[in-house]
Design brief:
240 residues, mainly alpha, 2 domains, 5 strands, 56% helix
Length: 240
C-alpha cells in the first residue's frame, strides 16, 4: 500500500482524522501516490452525487440550500469521535444499499441517507461555530478592526477576502455567533458611523452618505430609517 496525496482543484488536501469537506459540482479532485513503498496511514470515504440520482426528488430542491458547498478547502468540518461514528454509519448504510439487489426502494433509501448525512453535517458545522470559540472570536476581532478602518461601503466579498475566509463560511459563522450575517453587520457598523457623523459634525446628509460609500442619498436614507426607525434628519434633530 502507499501514502496518497489528494488534490482539490490545484491545492493539496491535508488529510487528517475526523475531517469532512464538501466539493461543489465542477471542482476537480484527484488522488496520486505520494511516497511509493510506504504503507498508507490515512483512510476515508468519498461520495459522488450524480445529478441523475437526485433528479425530481426532494433532495434536488434542497441540496443547494446547504452553505457548506461554497466553503473553502481549509474550512472543513472537524468531527468528534461520536460525530465521525454517526457519519461513518450513514456512509456504510449507503454502501450496503448500493451493493444490495436493486429494487424500487433502493433509490429513495439511498437519497434518504444522503439527506440525513447533509443534515448532520449542517448540525455539526453549527456546533463547530460555537465550540471553536478562540479561533472564531479572533475572526470577529479582525472583522471589527476591518470594518472600523474601512472607508466607504465594503462588499461582503471584500471583507471575506481580507479575512481569508469564504463569504459563505463567514456569514454562516456570524449568523450563529451574532444573529446577523456579514451584510447585516456591515450595515450595522455603517449606521454607527452615520450616527456619529450626524450627531458630531455639520456635514449635510448628502455629504455623509457620500463619505460612507453610497452613490444615492435615497439608498442611505432608506437603510438608516430601516435600522433606526428615524430618517437621518430626524435623528440629527433629536440632538438639538
Amino acid at each position: 500500500m502507499h501514502n496518497f496525496k489528494a488534490k482539490y482543484g490545484q491545492h493539496p488536501f491535508d488529510f487528517n482524522e475526523g475531517i469532512m469537506s464538501f466539493m461543489a459540482p465542477g471542482q476537480v479532485f484527484s488522488i496520486g501516490i505520494a511516497d511509493k513503498g510506504k504503507q498508507a496511514e490515512k483512510s476515508g470515504w468519498v461520495i459522488y452525487i450524480h445529478p441523475d440520482l437526485i433528479w425530481n426528488t426532494s433532495l434536488a430542491k434542497t441540496i443547494k440550500q446547504y452553505d457548506f458547498w461554497d466553503y473553502s478547502l481549509h474550512e472543513g468540518l472537524f468531527l468528534s469521535e461520536k460525530e465521525e461514528a454517526t457519519i461513518t454509519a450513514l456512509i456504510q448504510n449507503i454502501e450496503q444499499e448500493h451493493h444490495a439487489n436493486i429494487d424500487q426502494f433502493s433509490k429513495p433509501i439511498i437519497i434518504s441517507h444522503i439527506e440525513t448525512l447533509l443534515n448532520y453535517a449542517h448540525r455539526f458545522y453549527h456546533r463547530q461555530f460555537i465550540t471553536r470559540e478562540l479561533a472564531n472570536h479572533q475572526i470577529l476581532e479582525r472583522l471589527e478592526i476591518l470594518l472600523a478602518s474601512c472607508q466607504g461601503l465594503p462588499t461582503v466579498a471584500y471583507v471575506a477576502g481580507e479575512l481569508n475566509i469564504s463569504a459563505k463560511y463567514l456569514s454562516s459563522m456570524l449568523k450563529v455567533l451574532t444573529g446577523q450575517n456579514t451584510q447585516q453587520l456591515i450595515h450595522e457598523k455603517l449606521i454607527e458611523k452615520a450616527k456619529q457623523k450626524l450627531s458630531t459634525t455639520n456635514l449635510s446628509v448628502s455629504e455623509i452618505a457620500y463619505d460612507l460609500g453610497f452613490e444615492h442619498l435615497q439608498s442611505f436614507s432608506k437603510l438608516f430609517k430601516t435600522k433606526t426607525n428615524l430618517s437621518p434628519l430626524e435623528f440629527r434633530r433629536s440632538f438639538n
